[in-house]
Amino acid sequence: MRIVAADHVGETRAAVIDGDRAIELHVERWSERGKRAWRGEVYRARVTKIDASINGAFCDIGRGPAGFLPFGKAGRPDGLHEGAAIGVQIAREQFQEKGPTLVLFDVEPGEAPEIVVSAPPIAERLSMMYDAPVRTPKEAEVELDQLFDEALEAVVPLSGGGRLVIEPVTAMTAIDVDSAGRHTQGGSPKMALDLNKTAAREAARQIRLRGIGGVVAIDFLPLKKKQDQSQLDQTLKGAFKRDPAKIDVAPASRFAIVELSRQRLGRALHEICWERFGVESVETRALAALRRLEAEGKAKRGGRLALLAGAEVYAWLENDPIGWTKAMKSRLGDRFELVLEEARGARDFEVRPL
């Protein structure tokens, strides 16, 4: 296993590679520095509200929304009251409108809220988590951007034919198994079982790869034999065995739909990159433009470059909320120019020689 990472102006992208396949993708953006709590960080928090109805407390950690500390079966800890300063660790990062989940952690007395132990950069965190070396895409011969692009596609082809169609919605993720004209010797029942087993293994990989959490419904092809359904159940559960998140798989319904729940450890990739289903955010497009500019600048070391951008991407870059201009000049020198092209699509861009 190895970690492949690329530090770009504006964000770091990283992949966990097992053998020759990516099993996890992660992104860490400059725009969230100092604003977001990462899993594993330790804070001295201030208890702002105790809510007996949900058996827990809300705590101000000094960045982002309030965290939630569940009391669990043991109940409210002795001495914990509103206004108290307590040590907590981030167990689950914030996502959508929900703040992070916390667990108690011993810390020295002091000011609250305050961070006590910061998380290292994403590549280092993954390296420690999996005891794996960090490589750059060039050293590892991995097309990192291609992996990210594929992981945001709705359609995933399956080996031997067929495909998955993955559609995240607000409360869950739906995955449809489509035969897409797949044929196999042994007739329709064998084809359905073979395709379903292939789909189960790939669905498990895609769920982990994309960081999907919460409820997932997989619509498999119907299976008439109980022994075939049993094989599929075992295949699906086996495919999740190495997933670090907790997985709960329910029995298939009579409509061949399997529901499962995957522990949320952070945000899904699409929650970071998309504004809504299938639509990349302005920041995602602007960072893609910066990656293109940096790549062209390194490939053409002597020439000047123009980053031609549509209105929305231009406005984000011109406002420069992350200090990209200074950072890019340190990498390429003062040989690039940001140009507004109003006739271009609002989120489109292009890099050309000047």
Structure description:
This protein is an alpha+beta fold. Helix content is 28%, strand content 32%. The chain has 9 helices and 21 strands. The chain has helices spanning 122-130, 137-140, 144-151, 187-209, 226-239, 269-273, 282-299, 311-319, 324-332; strands at residues 2-8, 11-18, 21-29, 42-51, 56-60, 67-70, 85-92, 101-104, 114-117, 134-135, 155-157, 163-168, 172-178, 214-219, 247-249, 257-262, 274-276, 279-280, 305-309, 336-340, 349-353. Strands 4, 5, 6, 7, 8 and 9 form a 6-stranded antiparallel sheet that branches. Strands 11-12-13-14-16-15 form a 6-stranded mixed sheet, covered by helices on one side. Helix 4 (187-209) runs parallel beside helix 5 (226-239), helix 7 (282-299) crosses helix 8 and helix 7 packs parallel to helix 9 (324-332). The radius of gyration is 23 Å and the shape is globular. The two termini are 43 Å apart.
Question: Which key features would you list for this structure?
Answer:
single chain; about 350 residues; alpha+beta; six-stranded antiparallel β-sheet; 9 helices; globular
In terms of topology, how is this protein built?
Layout: E1 2-8, E2 11-18, E3 21-29, E4 42-51, E5 56-60, E6 67-70, E7 85-92, E8 101-104, E9 114-117, H1 122-130, E10 134-135, H2 137-140, H3 144-151, E11 155-157, E12 163-168, E13 172-178, H4 187-209, E14 214-219, H5 226-239, E15 247-249, E16 257-262, H6 269-273, E17 274-276, E18 279-280, H7 282-299, E19 305-309, H8 311-319, H9 324-332, E20 336-340, E21 349-353
Parallel strand pairs: 1-10, 13-14, 19-20
Antiparallel strand pairs: 1-2, 2-3, 4-5, 4-7, 4-9, 5-6, 7-8, 11-12, 12-13, 14-16, 15-16, 17-18, 19-21
